[in-house]
Amino acid sequence: MGIVKAVAVISGGDSNNNVRGSIQFLQDFNSIAGGAATLVKGRITGLTPGLHGFHIHALGDTTNGCNSTGPHFNPLKRDHGAPSDQNRHAGDLGNIIAGVDGVAEISIKDIQIPLTGPHSILGRAVVVHADLDDLGKGGHELSRTTGNAGARVACGIIGIQSSV
Ligand SMILES: *[C@@H]1O[C@H](CO)[C@@H](O)[C@H](O)[C@H]1NC(C)=O
Ligand SMILES: [Cu+2]
Ligand SMILES: [Zn+2]
């Protein structure tokens, strides 16, 4: 299978923000037979400084902006958690951090977001939130479902990218 690549072009959910970016997803099947992690790399600009929840949501639908992308991608029907938890939504990638310049540089390696097979994230969406994700531990009523990360400030649909 070689290397499988995908890309999501990120833009603001409502037209009233300036969040932009691009995220690449790469799974290299040459490196580890069968169990290759997905590398998530990119840059998002126009954010407020600080932590922002960062997830794969279930649907690649932006008919009504990022609100149409559905809940966190959760094929195994688990509770919301931290990326380091085994028991988490597959889409739980934790937080990204924007500097004072509003720029977040992203580099994440994760084993629960494959680009092939029944739990593939292709055709779904990556979403950036206004607030930080409490990773399921905030004690808020939304902690166990969304990490209480607030509004969806930007998103992009994960599509197939040329592998050459
Ligand atoms: C998305 O939902 C939020 C809160 O539920 C709302 O404030 C916002 O206006 C919605 N955005 C769109 C584009 O419908
Ligand atoms: Cu989310
Ligand atoms: Zn979640």
TrEMBL record:
Note on how the cofactor is bound: Binds 1 zinc ion per subunit.
Cited Gene3D superfamilies: Superoxide dismutase, copper/zinc binding domain (2.60.40.200)
**Record-listed E.C. numbers:** 1.15.1.1
Cofactor(s) needed for function: Zn(2+); Cu cation
Q: Where is the Superoxide dismutase copper/zinc binding domain?
A: 19-158
Annotated family: Belongs to the Cu-Zn superoxide dismutase family.
Protein's name according to its UniProt entry: Superoxide dismutase [Cu-Zn]
Organism for this UniProt entry: Coffea arabica (Arabian coffee)
Encoding gene, per UniProt annotation: LOC113692557
